[in-house]
Amino acid sequence: MSAYGIGLADLRVLKEQTLELPLIPEHLATIDQTLNTLAAQAQQELPRPASDRLNKLYLKYASTDATLGVDYTGTETIEELTTHFNRLYHQRYGFTFSDKALIVDLVEVELIAPTQANPEQLRTRTHSQGPIAVEIVPIFMGDRWVDAPIYQRETLQPGDQLLGPCLIVEPTGTNVIEPQWQGQINDYGYLIVERSLTPTLTPIQPKALAHPNPAQTDAVLLEIFSNLFQSIAEQMGTTLQQTSYSVNIKERLDFSCAVFDREGHLVANAPHIPVHLGSMGDSVTNLIQDPTVTIKPGDVYASNNPYAGGTHLPDVTVITPVFVRAEDPTPSFYVASRGHHADLGGITPGSMPPQSTSIAEEGILLDNVVLVKQGQWLEPKITELLTTGPYPVRNIIQNLADLQAQIAANNKGYQELLKTVDKYGLATVHHYMQAVQDRAEEAVKQVLAHLHNGCYQVTLDQGAGIKVQITIDQPSATATIDFTGTSAQLNTNFNAPSSVVKAAVLYCFRTLVTEPIPLNYGCLKPLQINIPAGSMLNPIAPAPVVAGNVETSQQITDCIYGALGVLANSQGTMNNFTFGNDRYQYYETICGGAGAGPSFNGTDAVQTHMTNSRLTDPEVLEYRFPVQLEEFSIRHGSGGQGQYGGGNGVIRKLKFLEPMNAGILSDRRTMPPKVLTVGAMANREKLCT
Predict the structure, then answer these.
(1) Helix, strand, coil content of the chain in percent (nearest 5)
(2) What's the alpha-carbon Rg for the chain, to the nearest Å?
(3) Deepest of 174, 388, 432, 618, by most Cβ within 10 A of its Cβ?
(4) pLDDT tens-digit profile of 524-572?
(5) Pairing, β 649-656 against β 627-635
(6) Which of 624, 628, 632 is nearest to 248 (CA)?
(7) DSSP string, 549-577
(8) Are 264 and 288 within 8 A, CB to CB?
């Protein structure tokens, strides 16, 4: 906005006050009185009487934290305010509560006083001729190429009308009037743009792209859809961050969002947590194939089952089936969000116990649990599930708030997919969901053409070993990733669910693709993954798995990169640090050094490979928890030397201000990362002997 425009803007004063009162008839007088008092205070700050006054009530359901603003004139009934709030809440979160009272969290008043601008000078026309275009050029608007005239701003006169699409060029910029809009020069020489009721598109290409032929793949549309699907996942992530409660999700961004096709295959994701994204598809397909589940419109499900697509229990996946029409027998798509909950029960706060020996000690297991049934949030059932059993959750309010935030994120994806279908047609959207996967498959095949067979193995601190043999079939552009020879299922919690292994494979091969494609199911199609059942990479319930997701996954990536000869070992651990008590629970993965490659150094102090979360800002950490961050620095000299050096690790010191239980879940303390040598690169098939 220009300084001149700011000078012409109305003067506004906003006042608000917290009330925390139930929305009942007896409190309306108090609400009105508070609003009037705030309005009087606001008027004192204005230089002239206000011409307009806007009131808002910020309402929320009892025992929740999410507020939404409802316009209030003082004439609305309780029923009208409730209906308006429920409509807004359903629009944001995708469900409503049928049994919760409404609370007036705060009230807000905004007073508006018109500005007193200097008198403006009228302008007159100098000739009767209308606007003359200096040139007509093709521009892409409204999903098609159209002819657009270009006008010089200084030649336009009062009364001139300009139908979109057109361009208006002036010394300091260019104004674009889009189709369905029109511009007019007023008596003061200003350009006024408003919506037109008359269509003004003039196609210069006979091919309209609004509903393209779903049997053909257009290169331009493929790029559009590829970015569109990824954008939907990114919008979901933004919604989840904004509506979540816990530090884990809101600050550390330990969550992931993605879009799936009707078969539950990953189509596109935002750049979130790799170990989540590669495994979430298994959770969705497990829901689809579950014979005990009957999916209906308005249903939302939760799962963290490590033996059915999950990673470890704190990572809860919320899945929303997307029905384009309520009468459809099956969903057309699925959207899902996976968030790491600060605590989900178990024997230690934070649900990351280093010493667990069974899945029951790691927290509450959710297996396709219904969170929302046909639009109704099932809080009593969910609360009972999470707060019963030998090791219940420690902060149910936090869990419920984060689950609701995940549902809201999914609802955002749901609405954006419906908009996409409305614009392009269902058949076209299905076609391009498959096309972006085919594109990813082809990209991975092109990478395989430049790779060679290799073998690699690593040993964990506890003595268990991971072994991988990668065999490239050049004629078919496929590869076999075989983990035969890996240690049997462990008594410790370093067992990794098979979905975590699949996620690590997907991540590694996707990083070798230089083309900017979304990570999706297509990347896996040329890859055959063999994981022996009953091994530490494919455990049988009730094996403990909490470290497999975070620790073993890092070792798997090092194995794959080592077998391919493209990267030395990184820190090989996420350094999972948890602390807490009955009141506080916190978890973070501490960054470290990334491995060097054949032509580059490693990177200091980064989250490596299967984690992509942040560390909480010191100000937020110390505000939300009774701790002090005494040091966070690079541990110089810890990355290893060579022609290309590995990245350095970090030093992180925290001081507790009240008693806490704390734990570190980690590896690579006695078995250090391996270097990558020229000899090893040349003899990769012998690295397992």
Answers:
(1) 30, 25, 45
(2) 29
(3) 432
(4) 999 999 999 999 999 999 999 999 989 999 999 999 999 999 999 999 9
(5) antiparallel
(6) 624
(7) IIIIHHHHHHHHHHHHTS---------EE
(8) yes
